[in-house]
Design a protein that fits this description.
This protein is α/β, with parallel strands linked by helices and 444 residues long. The protein contains 20 helices and 9 strands. It folds into 3 domains: 84 residues, Four Helix Bundle (Hemerythrin (Met), subunit A); 185 residues, 3-Layer(aba) Sandwich (Rossmann fold), CATH 3.40.50; 119 residues, 434 Repressor (Amino-terminal Domain), CATH 1.10.260.30. Bound molecules: guanosine-5'-diphosphate. It is a peripheral membrane protein.
Length: 444
């Protein structure tokens, strides 16, 4: 089974005692396990190949943050790439068009197409308050037409009356006509499936598409059929053109591989998932949940995220400690300046700090704006490590060099150094390091 990828990776990677960057050798060992695990989860081979290659590139050289193991780190990287591949932001079906909006359902017989049509109708009516008409285009199986009619009666959602002898494209047109006359918002077209992928089915679906010009063409695919579902998705997309995929029987699929494969192969989003036989068992697709299912280890992911957040906190605490001791050097200043830039620059910071508005005029008078932040960082970046640690070293010739290197004037370099002295003094005086660097800036 697949849910021990964490253990497998752990077995390989946690024997390594070294911390720091993951080496190529570690990563390759991990990738063999990832590959095996994905194949066991029924992910298509071509997808496994490109996926592991992408993960490998990201993992080599990645820093293992403190308090997580290299195995956990790789799991996190795999997880994030899974979410990316599955489509980072979930997408749902789009019904915003001129009513009646036609939505066409395609797929193999037995995939859950008719049930899904009813599920979708129910959601659109009950949750979204839309007026929905359902139509069965399966002229080969009267039982299928009857099945939709029964579901419609149960849900109190109308279905198009059956007229013997009509071809599917004609029925589609009649459904849209009825939709228009009846003031419906949406018309769901449940097309006929076959037991296997065949040209006749594709040709018919293409003809219906031409007749109805649907706003969405949704492939309903059984997640339990794995590889077949992937081939089906590819063929339907090439021949008919899909706007999205609905995966059914996700409730019985502990592996989640079909979702990853179909998305990767067709590039089409999985928009909905079926999670049971009842008509309320339809859910939006959440990439992170499926990624978690494929990995079977949501905990590791949040563990690594937390550990990474702690690193920032530790860094901030160290800087604060240095400030308290009056050791605020130009490296610390650079850190502060770039943090300010990250927080939306000076205007962003001012917006966040209620008391700061009093200083606004002072700051403006000093000519401080966000361009200055960038200039100051550029100046510090042109200094050597020694110079950043010991600003006293900066005499005229060094200042000239730094000015030239950063494309600024010596006067700007002097201003920066003065600002640094002010900030260092203020911070030392405060002794707590709690107040931000703006006080120093305002005095520069
Ligand atoms: P169609 O031939 O593609 O129209 O398939 P049906 O809609 O008739 O569904 C075939 C069977 O699959 C029925 O027994 C459904 O109840 C069942 N089914 C459909 N979707 C799901 C699902 O998401 N989960 C489960 N467990 N069963 C489903």
């Amino acid at each position: 089974m697949f849910d021990n990828l964490s253990e497998r990776l752990g077995g390989i990677l946690d024997r390594l005692t070294g911390r720091g960057a993951l080496t190529e050798k570690d990563v390759d060992a991990a990738m063999r396990e990832v590959r095996r695990a994905l194949l066991e989860a029924d992910v298509a081979l071509e997808v496994v190949r490109s996926f592991t290659e992408r993960v490998r590139e990201q993992a080599i050289g990645a820093t293992v943050v403190k308090s997580v193991t290299p195995g956990q780190m790789v799991v996190k990287i795999v997880h994030d790439e899974l979410v990316n591949t599955l489509g980072a932001e979930g997408q749902t079906i789009d019904v915003n068009s001129v009513p009646p909006v036609p939505i066409m359902m395609v797929g193999l017989q037995g995939s859950g197409k008719t049930t899904t049509t009813a599920k979708l109708a129910r959601r659109l009516v009950q949750r979204d308050k839309r007026k929905v008409l359902m139509a069965s285009l399966d002229v080969y199986r009267p039982a299928a037409m009857e099945q939709l009619a029964v579901l419609g009666r149960d849900l109190d959602i109308p279905t198009l009356p059956i007229v013997a002898g009509q071809q599917p494209p004609q029925i589609a047109k009649r459904a849209l006509e009825a939709g228009k006359l009846g003031g419906y918002d949406i018309v769901l077209l449940d097309t006929a499936g076959r037991t296997t992928l065949d040209e006749e089915m594709m040709a018919e679906a293409a003809a219906i598409k031409t007749a109805a010009n649907p706003h969405e063409v949704l492939l309903v695919a059984d997640s339990l059929t794995g590889q077949d579902a992937v081939n089906l998705a590819r063929s339907f997309d090439q021949r008919v053109g899909l706007t999205g995929i609905v995966l059914t029987r996700v409730d019985g699929d502990g592996r989640g591989g079909a979702a990853l494969s179909m998305r990767a192969v067709t590039g089409k989003p999985i928009k909905l998932i079926g999670t049971g036989e009842k008509t309320d068992a339809l859910e939006d697709f959440h990439p992170d949940r499926i990624a978690g299912r494929i990995l079977g280890m949501g905990d590791v992911v949040s563990l690594v995220e937390k550990a990474a957040a702690n690193i920032d906190a530790e860094k901030a605490a160290r800087t604060a400690e240095r400030m308290r001791k009056g050791q605020f050097d130009l490296n610390d200043m650079r850190e502060q300046l770039s943090q300010m830039a990250n927080m939306g620059g000076i205007s962003g910071l001012m917006g966040m700090m209620p008391g700061i508005s009093k200083m606004k005029n002072q700051i403006a008078a000093a000519g401080i704006d966000d361009r200055i932040l960038k200039r100051q960082v550029a100046i510090i970046d042109s200094m050597t490590r020694e110079e950043r640690r010991h600003p006293d070293l900066l005499k005229a010739s060094r200042k000239k060099r730094i000015a030239a290197g950063s494309g600024q004037s010596v006067e700007h370099v002097n201003k920066l150094l003065k600002m640094h002295r002010n900030m260092a003094d203020v911070m030392k005086a405060m002794g707590s390091g709690k107040r931000g660097p703006l006080a120093g800036i305002a005095q520069a």
